[in-house]
Specification:
mainly alpha, Arc Repressor Mutant, subunit A
Length: 183
């Protein structure tokens, strides 16, 4: 296949031939035109980046659709997690707004957690963000990062321990962790 060899004209033709199939299919899933465009762009970017695998793919149509569906469901999962976090923050805000001293303490803890995350080594940071911020399961993180699930578990455990130790050194005990993670 010419796309696998890096032929940009063949790639444009492939894109043009799949666009009429992908656009309405993705719109039925995500119901937002801008998101559909993003999903299609991400799908073809991924296809281009992994074009060397194309000769081994028996059914390219199925492969392209699988990439697009994965991106669409990833968007829906992220949207759901975002909405849950907003609800969670809404509940916390109501609790925190009652007392200015509690609000200040809560803000300081959030800043300290952000600081700890920034200090993580790159791989631990990525695993932590994919797990805790994006909500991906261990298996999905392992697949995305091309690691074994056990390696992801170990890396996540080290990241969480680092954050916990960082918070303890900063003077925040377990009661604050419970407040943050179990409202």
């Amino acid at each position: 296949m010419l796309v696998a060899e890096g032929d940009e004209t063949a790639f444009r033709q492939l894109f043009s031939s799949y666009l009429p199939l992908l656009r309405p299919t993705m719109f039925r899933i995500v119901k937002d035109e801008q998101t559909v465009q993003d999903i299609i762009q991400e799908t073809f970017l991924r296809l281009w980046l992994h074009r060397d695998k194309m000769p081994a793919i028996e059914n390219p149509r199925s492969w392209i659709l699988r990439i697009a569906y994965y991106r669409a469901f990833e968007y829906l999962r992220d949207k759901t997690l975002y909405e849950k976090k907003l609800q969670l923050l809404g509940g916390r805000t109501a609790m925190v707004d009652d007392r200015p001293d509690t609000r200040l303490a809560f803000s300081a803890i959030e800043q300290e957690i952000s600081r700890a995350i920034r200090l993580l080594p790159p791989q631990q940071k990525k695993v932590y963000q994919l797990s805790r911020e994006a909500g991906l399961p261990i298996a999905a993180i392992a697949e995305e990062m091309r690691l074994s699930p056990q390696s992801v578990k170990n890396t996540l455990g080290r990241a969480l321990k680092f954050i916990r130790d960082h918070l303890e050194k900063a003077g925040y005990g377990w009661i604050w962790l419970l407040l943050l993670f179990f409202p």
